[in-house]
From TrEMBL, chain A:
The keyword Transport applies. GO terms for molecular function: ATP binding. This is Sugar ABC transporter ATP-binding protein. InterPro entries: AAA+_ATPase, ABC_transporter-like_ATP-bd, ABC_transporter-like_CS, ABC_transpr_MalK-like, ABC_transpr_MalK/UgpC-like, Mo/tungstate-bd_C_term_dom, NA-bd_OB-fold, P-loop_NTPase. It comes from Bradyrhizobium iriomotense. Keywords: ATP-binding, Nucleotide-binding, Transport.
From TrEMBL, chain B:
The chain crosses the membrane at residues 12-33, 76-96, 108-131, 143-163, 184-209, 240-261. Its main location: membrane. PANTHER family: INNER MEMBRANE ABC TRANSPORTER PERMEASE PROTEIN YCJP (PTHR32243:SF18), MALTOSE TRANSPORT SYSTEM PERMEASE-RELATED (PTHR32243). Keywords: Cell membrane, Membrane, Transmembrane, Transmembrane helix, Transport. SUPFAM superfamilies: MetI-like. The keyword Transmembrane helix applies. It is found in: Cell membrane. Coiled coil: none annotated. It comes from the Bacteria. It is a multi-pass membrane protein. Residues 72-262 form the ABC transmembrane type-1 domain. This is Mannitol ABC transporter permease.
């Protein structure tokens, strides 16, 4: 079991409020990703859950039990650090088994569990090496091995893949997701990589300046962003925002249309006319950055190749069903 | 082509390193050679390098005239004692400054270093008088005390930089793994701090072993370490190069041997943090 609940969790460092009241319900076995801009408090929130930092106010429940006064090791969670944080003087075997040793398990039981974990992570040939003799990806796997071997109620990951190169990151992303599904253990994963968030998460928490802006499944966030911040943060390229006449016509202060929901017409009269400033041809996609005069720069995405070039005039027609409307305060208008 | 250029570069830098090493080592080599010469040959111009009449007579004279073992024992006690006490004080001090720094930590560190900026001779008179009043002149305890205080700032600085290098994440990982403070100390911190501790210990031993200002001024015979033993050959009846060299060779031999056997540790300690 590993159900984690936050109730009004706050954290201040001296006079500075970093986490301004977080409420969250994380179901057992789910994979939850925290995303948000740098400095918004993702790491801090994760460390509060881990117990590496004390809450200023609020309650953290694990399986219904308030753990705010419980030391980290007793919370039954394990953490994978961005820097791997392996013990440099211990072998891979020692690193993975350290938590079990601290828990007072018998030697042969530790060995059995360590070897099982190593087998899952393809680390068996490296068991007797020191961390400095491993590649980045292997070190990361050792860090993950150290987390899974204790059979925790939950995993906490703080940007575990950010030190790896792009190809390895994709591979590890898939491995982590597969492993988590296979073990069925609750996981909280911090990243500021959108693709990681969208692909790995059952549910995403969007954090901004210490506040939870929205909590929902990746598609919910994509299709029904709660406010301007989430709308702009989720999705790549970013959603286009238009204010003024076009927005007022639709009863909103701001409307948003994703680049993939703009129809590109070569010389249509309807929609939003403009001149292409930059055209990016990726083969699979074409991105157009269009200078639409008073509306500002708009981005449009076309699936496939579109032979348009900088300087061409186009008209962008928003898909009426995919227009997001926001009020003065920046919150979504539904219905 | 590229490979040949690299080979040549390696050869040149190897030769350069040997040359530099030889230049640095030459005075010591010269001293050792001189210790086996007669007093006349030691002065001879042009000097003879290897082809002279090798003799052990200087060593015999030195041993006869003064008690080497007595001074060596004093050196061991003074260098060892002052180093151990300095470490006992410095480890917790550096520890707390590295792991729970306050606003004043930087200032305290600077202040400690600033005490090393004053030339020791500036406080010789007051310290001499204090030692005289308290009855610490020519006592091992007194020398242990003064050398320990003298080296403490450097020891604390070195340990502080080593401890700072230990990533916090690792300590937190150990906490997540369920290590209590005590076990964290035994299984994680100490093994990671040992290279730094060892090199600090070695360096401090060498500094204390070779310290000549306070030992010469505050001791005469009872507590006199090897530095005093060497100095005694540059006085009353004039300079005796060969005997002075023999005395010096005897005095540095123990520390040279220690340094030789721990060179790996020393180098690792001195470059700690530079190579990841
Ligand atoms: N120990 C601390 N003392 C004071 N301020 C802190 C401390 N730790 C974090 N902060 C501040 O809290 C804010 C949130 O930090 P946090 O590390 O949680 O951000 P983050 O969302 O993880 O950012 P990133 O994506 O860059 O890792 C930052 O403004 C940071 O300066
Ligand atoms: Mg962070």
């Amino acid at each position: 079991m590993g159900q984690i609940t936050l109730q009004g969790v706050q954290k201040a460092f001296g006079p500075v409020h970093i986490i301004k009241g977080a409420d969250l319900d994380i179901a057992d076995g789910s994979f939850v990703v925290f995303v948000g801009p740098s400095g918004c408090g993702k790491t801090t929130l994760l460390r509060l859950i881990a117990g590496l930092e004390d809450v200023t106010d609020g309650r953290i429940l694990i399986d219904g039990k308030n753990v705010v006064a419980v030391p980290p090791a007793k919370r039954g969670l394990s953490m994978v650090f961005q820097s791997y944080a392996l013990y440099p003087h211990m072998s891979v075997r020692g690193n993975i088994g350290f938590g079990l040793k601290m828990a007072g398990l018998a030697k042969d039981e530790i060995n059995r569990k360590v070897e099982a974990a190593a087998a899952t992570l393809n680390l068996t040939p490296y068991l007797d090496r020191k961390p400095r003799e491993l590649s980045g990806g292997q070190r990361q796997r050792v860090a993950i091995g150290r987390a899974i071997v204790r059979e925790p109620k939950g995993f906490l990951f703080d940007e575990p893949l950010s030190n790896l190169d792009a190809a390895l990151r994709v591979q590890m992303r898939i491995e982590v997701t597969r492993l988590q599904k296979q073990l069925g253990t609750t996981a909280i994963y911090v990243t500021h990589d959108q693709v990681e968030a969208m692909t790995m998460a059952d549910k995403i928490v969007v954090l901004n300046a210490g506040k939870i802006e929205q909590y929902g499944s990746p598609l919910e966030l994509y299709e029904k962003p709660a406010n301007l911040f989430v709308a702009g943060f989720i999705g790549s390229p970013k959603m286009n925002f238009v204010t003024g006449e076009s927005a007022l016509q639709r009863g909103a202060a701001t409307i948003g249309v994703r680049p993939e929901h703009l129809k590109i017409e070569r010389d249509g009269a309807g929609g939003w006319p403009g001149t292409i400033a930059v055209a990016e041809h990726l083969g699979s996609d074409t991105f157009l950055y269009v200078d639409a005069g008073p509306l500002g720069m708009l981005t449009a995405r076309y699936i496939g190749e579109l032979s348009l070039h900088a300087g061409d005039r186009v008209s962008l027609v928003p898909d009426p069903a995919r227009i997001h409307r926001f009020n003065e305060a920046g919150n979504a208008i539904r219905g | 082509m590229a490979r040949m250029a690299t080979t040549r570069r390696v050869a040149v830098s190897t030769a350069g390193a040997w040359l530099a090493g030889f230049l640095i080592f030459f005075p010591i080599l010269w001293m050792i050679l001189a210790s086996f010469k007669t007093e006349l040959e030691a002065f001879a111009i042009p000097p003879s390098f290897l082809f002279f009449h090798w003799t052990l007579e200087n060593y015999a004279t030195v041993q006869e005239r003064s008690d080497y073992l007595h001074h060596a024992l004093n050196s061991i006690i003074i260098a060892g004692g002052s180093t151990l006490i300095a470490l006992l004080i410095a480890v917790p001090a550096a520890w707390s400054m590295a792991f729970s720094p306050t606003k004043r930590t930087k200032d305290i560190l600077l202040w400690m270093l600033s005490t090393k900026m004053m030339p020791p001779v500036g406080v010789l008179v007051p310290i001499y008088l204090i030692f005289k009043t308290v009855g610490l002149l020519d006592s091992r305890i007194g020398l242990v005390f003064i050398l320990c205080l003298g080296n403490l700032p450097i020891v604390i600085w070195m340990l502080f930089t080593y401890f700072k290098e230990i990533p916090r994440d690792i300590l937190e990982a150990a906490r997540m793994d369920g290590a209590t403070i005590g076990r964290e100390l035994v299984y994680v911190l100490t093994p990671m701090a040992i290279p730094g501790l060892a090199s600090t210990l070695l360096l401090n031993l060498i500094l204390a072993w070779n310290e000549a200002f306070w030992t010469l001024n505050l001791s005469t015979s009872e507590a006199a370490p090897l530095t005093v033993f060497i100095a005694s050959y540059s006085s009353p009846e004039g300079l005796f190069w060969a005997k002075l060299s023999a005395a010096s060779t005897l005095a540095i031999a123990p520390i040279l041997v220690l340094g030789w056997f721990s060179q790996k540790q020393l180098v690792r300690g001195l470059t700690f943090g530079a190579v990841k």
